[in-house]
Structure to design on (396 residues):
């Protein structure tokens, strides 16, 4: 099953600056060969369900290993069985209607 | 790794009433022997990471099998390595400060 | 317009324990006479849209005033115009199907 | 108070294709002169708290007026008082650490 998710990992107990933890997650997602797009409030990820969630788990393990005692993550998760749809398709579908 | 998550599964393309799909997910979570608490905008779930996410996957598979062509789910996901904390602990911790 | 929301306020830069901030928000919601239900990963809130979001704003102002330099909040927000529905209705609707 | 939010409006009861509703929200956000960035699972929005949430309310009113009986929206909402930060700053902050 393919999934498109939006991932936002928020480490707690490490101060206000969280970008190094987000960068570590970006590296993990790239190593997993997942298609990703960073935005200002998370990262869009497209891939096989198991590959995606294995990478999310590795993000939590890594951010804890970097010193964060607590993590509060938000995931938006979309699956569909009526047709194949990519992240690019989703954006194009909205942009077409804005013309 | 233990996780406490808040799961909200929203099937699309099946009309406005989604309670039968939510009920199916509740059954899956119970069968997985996960500790859960239903609320008005989702379900709190406490358990081992892999068990939790295997159940979430089964929820998507089941809701699709029930006829939903598309699902948009929201997950809040907490892990911590500084100490063990249950869902009950989290609520009690706030309620103590409200007295 | 009536709204049912799920509010989860996460202060950053104040360490791992966030319960006193959550408790402060609970007090604000009560003072606003909103119907609320605390759970392990947020608070369900039911009320008039403007009253609800004025209270959410007051939560952010208060948590900042308590010393949190940064806040990352998650809101699930439901509105419907086909019929009136309370938080209790939503839970009952699922529980009926579990019997 | 300035806010950076991530908005994802999901209309229920209108079938699986939701792009026309998302496009209507994009128009509302532009008319409100808010800085926005559409991505594959929502829209990042930067602006004054009151302007942002007035626009979110108008989105719900409009999507209902377009025929959606029910809406389930997800908002991630960030505020900070330690320093001014834009959506571009947030992305740059992560990208710098990826080099």
């Amino acid at each position: 099953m393919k999934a498109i998710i939006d991932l936002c990992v928020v480490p707690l107990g490490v101060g206000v600056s969280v970008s190094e933890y987000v960068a570590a997650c970006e590296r993990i997602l790239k190593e997993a060969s997942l298609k990703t797009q960073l935005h200002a409030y998370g990262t869009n990820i497209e891939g096989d369900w198991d590959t995606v969630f294995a990478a999310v788990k590795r993000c939590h393990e890594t951010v804890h290993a970097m010193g964060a005692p607590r993590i509060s993550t938000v995931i938006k998760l979309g699956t569909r069985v009526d047709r194949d749809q990519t992240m690019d398709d989703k954006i194009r579908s909205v942009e077409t209607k804005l013309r």
Chain C touches chain A at residues 10, 12-13, 15-16, 18, 69-70, 72, 74 (CB under 8 Å). Helices of chain C lie at 19-31, 49-65, 87-98. The two ends of chain C are 33 Å apart (CA to CA). The mean pLDDT of chain C is 97.
